[in-house]
Amino acid sequence: MSSVASEYLSCSRDATQRKTLSQLLGARTRRQRQSPPSELRLQETVVRFMRHHQNLGDLLLEVNGSASRCFFNRGKVNSEDYNTKSPARDSFIASVLQEQALQLDLPVGLLSARASVEKVQQIMRLGVMCRRTVVLDSVQRSMLACLLQSMRELLSSSMFSRLQFSEELWKAKELPTLELVWHLQKENIVSLDELVASNPDATAVVCWLFNDLRLLCLGTEDQHQYEDIQRQILTDIVTLLVRNGFQELNVVKSDPKMQHFPQICFAVLDRMLQWLLDNVCKEREKEDSSGQKATEFWLSVFDVALLHGVISLDSLKQFLCYTLTQILTYNPVLEASDAIRMQGEWCFAKTQPLLTTFYRKLFVKFSAEELITHFQQVLETHEVNWQNVLSCASTLLICQPQTQQQLKELLARLLINSFENYELESIITAFLLARQAALEGPAVFISYSEWFKNSFGSASGYHGSSKKALIFLLKFLTDLVPFETAQYLKVHILYPPYVASKYRILLLEYISLAKTRLADLQVSIEEMGLYEDLSTAHGAPKPQCQARQDVEKAILIFENSGKIPASVMEASIFRRPYYLTRFLPALLTPRALPVSLDSRMVFINSLNKADKIPDNVYSSYVHACKREKQRVLEDLYQFIVLKSGVSMAEEMQHPMEPIGVLTGALEELRKVAADPSNGDVCPSTILDCTLTRWEGLCVSLTLRAMLAGILLEGGPPRPDRLKVVCAQIAIISGQLKTMLADADDCTAMDKPIRLDTAEPKLGPRESEVRDLLLKNFCQTFLTASNFNPPQRQGEWASLFVKMLCGHRRLLQAVLTRILHLTSHQGSSLGDVHILGLAAFTVHLHILQLSLSLANSSVCLPHSASKEGVSFAEHLNQFLTCRTGESSTFCLRFCTAAVAYAVCLSSSASIEIIKQSVPSGFVQKLLYIIPRLIPESRQEQGDVVESTWNNLVGLHLNWTTAALSVFKHHTFKELVKMKDFQLTFHDWLMFELAIQPHKDILSDLDRQDYQHWACYQLYLPSPLAVGGCGGDLVTASRIIINSLMDFNKRAAVQYCKEPDCSELSSFSRSCYENIICRLQEMVFDLERVWTKALGKSPSLESGHFLLDVFQDRLAGLESPIISKQLEHQTELQVFARILVALPPSVLFRTHKDRLKTTLECEAFFHFTNIELRNGYSKEFVIPFGITLHFFRGLLNACVDCEEPDCVIAGILNDSRVRCPLLVLSATFWWLRLEPVLFTQWKRFSDASLPRELQRMGDNQCWANSLLSGEMESPPPNTPWVLGAFLYFTLRRKNELRILQTVMRKICAENELLQVSLLYLSLMDLISSLLQPKEASGLTIAVKTCADVIMVLEEQNISWLNIFLAVNKDRGPHQILYSMVSDMEIKLLPVAFYSLIPGLDRKLLSSVIKHPDFLSVAITLYTAMVKLFLDGDDISATDQCDLQSSKQPDPLGLITRGHQFLLRTIPWCPAHTISQHNKLQAACKDIDPELKAALDYLQHCNGDGLYSEPTIL
Fold first, then answer.
1. pLDDT of the residue at 222
2. I need a labelling partner for 1156 at 20 to 30 A (CA). Which of 59, 233, 1069, 1229 fits?
3. Is 90 exceeded by the pLDDT of residue 30?
4. Are strands 1155-1159 and 753-756 parallel, antiparallel or unpaired?
5. Inter-CA distances, 827 with 99, 254, 840, 842, 1386, Å
6. According to the model, what pLDDT value does residue 1066 have?
7. What distance in Å separates the CA atoms of residue 1035 and residue 1041, rounded to the nearest whole number?
């Protein structure tokens, strides 16, 4: 104990003793006289004091602030922060532990373990929940993080005992929570197996783990907040339990204490499984939501994806097999008799979703054969829960269809075993499984009746071997009778097992008993239908409904076979009551017989000829049909009489509103057009008899003719019916003319109708009439189609459309309304509207009505002119397939239109049908049907039957209808014609327009469809039918052209939209998907070319990618300005496509004997011509293209024998033949180098190739100049060094030191200095064209002036650099090939923006150059001509025309003019040698300048010239 502490204690002991003041002062004096303690002694005293008063538990929680964060984000914490104060802190904790352990005479490990357990207990008691929880809250978790860090540090210092900590943890008052145990294992402090091994009471450990796992599944009140950590805890704990509980047999624990750990794991899993089954399998009237959530939570541990990889496959399968066995044998309280009675309620659809989910999770890792084998083993060796067994069988059949064959084999084995050994359990199992499988329907398993017939319906059945086997079967069936349901008894009675004649009495006894049971169930065997489904658990339909279904099924079978079905023949003999009382009445329902015999009449006649219809019944049927026909005729007569007499009189007395009159007229048209007698009326003899019966009535000849026209089908009387339709159409037309004052001009059919796609402004009456006409047309069409196919509906629809064509204004409104409905409300249109509008469009197309469009926002095909566009062609542009809704509507509308057009002309030749079918609709179907209906992608047989039947009915199936159209032979004949073909380019344009986020296909389905279309449909197809002829190069060209065409079309459509704010051609499209398909093809091409090594003809003739762009440029036919803009847009899109492809495709590989070389002449040409003029910015090409070139170079050179030499050769060539690439590389080098370095490291461990290393050295040299190190430049091409130097200084805003660098470093390199001037001039031109800041132009001018000053000081010629005419010769040729023609053309602008502003001294030096005057006047005349030719010298497509910072063209010309006039008198005399040439240049452009030149010559000729001293 320290002296301070001892004094303190002595003072406290003597506190009761009073001391005098002198004594106190004396003691103080003595203490003051003592020597002052040293600093080290004070530190030791303080440390000892703190140790005596230090709480060890609190000390363990004192960690740096990053501890809690480190706890959950171990990999994200900086290691330096993590260990900032660790050494001092560790030593302090260690010293405290050691001292206290010494004082208490305890081992350090035990003391630290007890302190840790005490803090763990304290942390657990901090929870806000009154009941036990296994998940910590945020405060507890933070404190635990600090404690665990301290424990981990003590463990690393060997001052912490895991075993003693585990033992102390079990001795504590509260057992550890599951999250605490999880963290201990996660932090490698104490594992779960160590913790369990330290507790000798295995039962207590099992109870603890089971209860905590159950609480973990139940969750907490704020479960959503900690759900992720709950799932992680559960996954890790269960993984450990499964791995140890179901470990391999040959795994033996070395530690004896650990040998009981696998049994504990197994016991915990077993208890959890029992708890799960209690929750899942017990039926409850009201489900507990919390219990269900807990069950679902535990079910998640059976996800194979979580356990796969961390548990061996054998252990995992053992675990799943054991679980499945436990389910099948759980609580086997139901007997087989209960299962027979109740199994109808245990099918898949009625099984609890949790249980089916459980089954499906267990099936994942097993094949069908393995599952059936295990199934059989459980059934043979265990007492099972029949409900779970049968529901599991149903789930297995549904989820694994291949199980059907395995189940059939299992049933066969069970039956063989049962009849060989007369084993009752096997046959019971077989019957239960067969019935359960049949409950899932014929798509999953054969029906029970079919299985029963196959098994016992013949002499070769399982029971046919002996009498004993027969008796065994019949006794089994007899024993089942009290428990059987009606449908199985019916099967046994109707399809009895085969019995030899001498044993038939045994079968009759069973049948008698079964019928008695049916009678008890109040089910009549006689009322059962011929084709009733006996396999399901649903009740039988009513006898009347079942009889009608039997009749329809029998007629269908008769149509296909031409024979009376055997079931009908059998029923007429063996089930005569049902046949006579149910079947025949349903078949012989009275009706108006058709003129031509239909299938029903032929079937009835066949039964009558076979004596299966009693004579009196057949006679009654014939008379009833005659009465029905007479009733129809009476009704028609009454209708016509009333309409011609009474109704007209009433209309005269009570006139209707105009809209009511029109409505009535349209209703009459519907009745006439949809008259069912058109197909089903009696022949003319019946009509004659009927008219004879009406002789006594006052019926006019006109009325009789109308009646005859309505009733008769075909023959001479039909024109009368056509007259009725025409008359009704005329009434409608007259009413329209009266209501809308719209002339009926039928002669205007040949005149185009001007159609404004914007919604027209109509009055209320006009809108009402328009909608009424469309509505009535659709209703009339649907009603007529219910009675007759399109080719037998007459001319009403065609006449109706022709009538509307005469009302031009109304037709415009109708057509606009159709466009609006299809483009904006297509998804909400019903089947009636779609069919009617499709038919209306087809009739307009047949009439060949042409339109002239206004305000059209859609892009018509290039070949289509806006004058004379058909309505169907225009409507086709509105039928987009961009989204799932629009695709579905497009499928329906085009299916209806094409089917109607084909049926309308079904008897005509293909050339006539071609005129009726809109080609655009066929192309849409060729695209959309394979996309939405995968079955259509397979080979289809020809369909000859009419497709219209699939479009008529109450339950219209558009998928079936579309497939029938797609398979129809007429449709296949149409698509062989060129106008109807869907080419690869057309398909790509459709697919590019798809919006993926609204597509009906998922990403994977869309990828599968695109692969099918590209590789199976179009790639092998011949070029003549729009395919690729098997050529990948052709396919790639088409894809690139389509991408560029789509961009152009999207840009045009975007510009027509009034609310456009940003141009994004490829947004919301399948651009990325199609790019992926292009990449795949190019990769395939690369593999082909790699094998051929440059011998491909397509490569020898040029680069196929770049040739696409050149071909498109050759096809541009636009004015100059428009062509330039279009050219630039095409170039931008093509560049985007180019960089998306493999970069090595830019290079061509050649192999000469044993040497492989590269060349990229095509890309050099593309860069020099296209990128240089159309895609360079700040006189370099974009980073993406530059990087693409270098990446391709590195990729391609890998296949060469000497990659370093190949790269050097390509870069040396590019310095001479394509310097823009190297210049761009110098500009982007800081971004290029790390990418290239990383890529090269993937190929080789060596450093970068020497040429790329040289570029890096150049950059380092330029960087060193910024730090003041004036080193000599490394060896390289002068202009490359100049580019590195200039770009580096400009990037760092240090161009002010350029003059100094040029004087000290570059003095001896003339080309380097001239290149710096050229780069600074290009910067000046860029600043003039694209003014960004006010200081930018000033800096550019000053930089140029500084460079010129250095050049003047060193007497370097530089003026010729401004003369573009010399760009093809001389030392500056390479510089001109780096910049665009526009920038070269603007060199005069740069000259007169720079030179007149030089200071006087420098300008005087410049004027002394012999060629100054020639250069100045040449540039001046070039600038004036540039302005006179109409080129704006201050604005290009890249700059803002509204910017006030741009130079004024006229101001520049004026400035140059005045500068020359001031300068000419001071020019040297030897410039007169070019006087005539300069005069000729100025003669027509600037006479004043010519006069100044004449004066200069005159003065010099008189000897009056003197050198100026001041300008």
1. 56
2. 1229
3. no
4. unpaired
5. 83, 71, 19, 20, 57
6. 46
7. 10
Q: Which two tokens stand for residue 311?
A: 């548990």
pLDDT in tens, 469-480: 999 999 999 999
Closest CA to 201 of 264, 256, 259: 264
Q: For the chain, what percentages of helix, strand and coil (3-state, to nearest 5) are there?
A: 70, 0, 30
pLDDT of residue 636: 59
User: Do strands 850-854 and 753-756 pair parallel, antiparallel, or not at all (unpaired)?
Assistant: parallel
Q: What is the mean pLDDT of residues 435-443?
A: 87
How many residues belong to the chain? 1511
- Cα–Cα distance for residue pair 543/556, rounded to 1 Å: 20
Structure tokens at 995: 């919006």
b vs e for 41-61, b when ≥16 Cβ sit within 10 Å of the residue's Cβ? eeeeeeeeeeeeebebbebbb
Distance between CA atoms of residues 568 and 575, nearest Å: 9
Residue 1391 has what DSSP assignment? H
**Residue whose tokens read 């009326």:** 681
Is the separation of the CB atoms in 320 and 366 below 8 Å?
yes
DSSP symbols for 1269-1299: --PPPPSS-HHHHHHHHHHHHHHTT-GGGHH
Residue 442 has what pLDDT? 81
Grouping H, G, I as helix, E, B as strand and the rest as coil, residue 1149 is strand
- By the 8 A CB rule, do 1317 and 1348 touch? yes
Note the Cα 250 to chain centre separation in Å.
49
**1152 phi and psi, to 5 degrees?**
-110, 105
Higher pLDDT, 836 or 717: 836
Mean pLDDT value across residues 778-791: 85
The percent of residues in the chain predicted with pLDDT above 70, rounded, is 76
Phi/psi for 943 (5° steps) reads -110, 130
- What span, in angstroms and rounded, lies between the C-alpha atoms of 258 and 252? 10
Distance of CA 1133 to the CA centre of its chain: 23
State pTM to two decimals.
0.57
Are residues 841 and 900 in contact, defined by beta-carbon separation less than 8 angstroms?
A: no
- The encoded tokens of residue 924 equal 């849409």
CA dist., res. 609 & res. 625, Å (int):
19
Share of the chain above pLDDT 90, in %: 17
Rg, Å, the chain Cα set: 49
| 1394-1410 confidence digits (pLDDT tens) | 888 888 888 888 888 88
Q: Are 1390 and 1321 in contact (CB under 8 A)?
A: yes
Contact 1070, 997 (CB under 8 A): no
Which residues neighbour 1405 within 8 Å (Cβ) at sequence distance 6 or greater? 1352
- DSSP strand pairing (1148-1152 vs 1155-1159): antiparallel
DSSP letter string, 35-64: PPPPHHHHHHHHHHHHHHT--HHHHHT---
> Rounded distance, CA 1033 to CA 1082, Å?
8
DSSP, residue by residue, 176-231: PPHHHHHHHHHTTSS-HHHHHHT-S-HHHHHHHHHHHHHHHHH--TTHHHHHHHHH
Poorest-confidence range of 47-61, 766-780, 1012-1026, 1320-1334? 47-61
What are all long-range contacts of 495-504, with beta carbons under 8 Å and residues at least 24 apart?
495/449, 495/452, 495/453, 495/457, 497/452, 497/456, 497/457, 497/461, 497/463, 497/470, 497/473, 498/456, 498/457, 498/458, 498/459, 498/461, 498/463, 498/464, 499/470, 500/459, 500/470, 503/467, 503/470
Higher pLDDT, 685 or 121: 121
| Whole-angstrom distance, CA of residue 4 vs CA of residue 10 | 10
Does 705 score more than 70 pLDDT? no
Q: With CA atoms as reference, report the closest residue to 1037 among 1124, 955, 1112.
A: 1112
Sheet of 867-870: strands edge to edge?
Answer: 753-756, 850-854, 867-870
**Which tokens belong to 745?**
């001009």
